[in-house]
């Protein structure tokens, strides 16, 4: 929430939470098939403004598909998804406008290789939001400083480490002042020593009140930053609980089995 606009920034800095707790993303009766494979089965959940929801589960459980469906990178076969009270548009300018409100951070950084770090971050605000270059540059430098790579602003992406590139990707997403940020395995392509630098940025965003849906295998992040954990398996949400409840007292055998494997390695 601290990145929505100047007024909310000021309120957040003064310790006042703005609108926290109001429904922002509502997923209702969502189903998705890939051919014969039923990858999302009657998914129902609500993400409130300012909430961090971490989606975990075994590979092939539908986590990434659900994340990508929230901004219609994947279409759904039935059900509804609404963002801030508005249904996902089918296509066209309305969908483009919605996507500008829904940030996306992928496991592969997806930076423009032929543009500098600064240009990567300013492109969306200038082209989509209509910001003047000077204003966009100023905002971009603030965000690059926030994620710890302001000194890399003039470099090309291939001159950066994987961790630095992912932090630039987060800054690029924040530059659009999104209502919610989706993160699909944001650390899975990183070398182990680079993971913490990205997780630290994500934890900072969570502490600032940014609404986030994060698909990840990083259980430490889930414990530390999540308001709620969704456990998915076989296309279904089998459990939904506060991190402490989920990790100490999983209700289903499937979750117990998953945790026994992932927490001992």
Automatic annotation (TrEMBL):
EC number(s) recorded for this UniProt protein: 3.6.3.-
Q: Which domain of life is it from?
A: Bacteria
Residue intervals of the ABC transporter domain = 25-259
UniProt GO MF annotations: ATP binding; hydrolase activity
Q: Keywords on this record?
A: Amino-acid transport, ATP-binding, Cell membrane, Hydrolase, Membrane, Nucleotide-binding, Transport
Principal location listed in the UniProt entry = membrane
Family indicated by similarity: Belongs to the ABC transporter superfamily.
UniProt-recorded name of the protein: Glutamate transport system ATP-binding protein
Organism for this UniProt entry? Brooklawnia cerclae
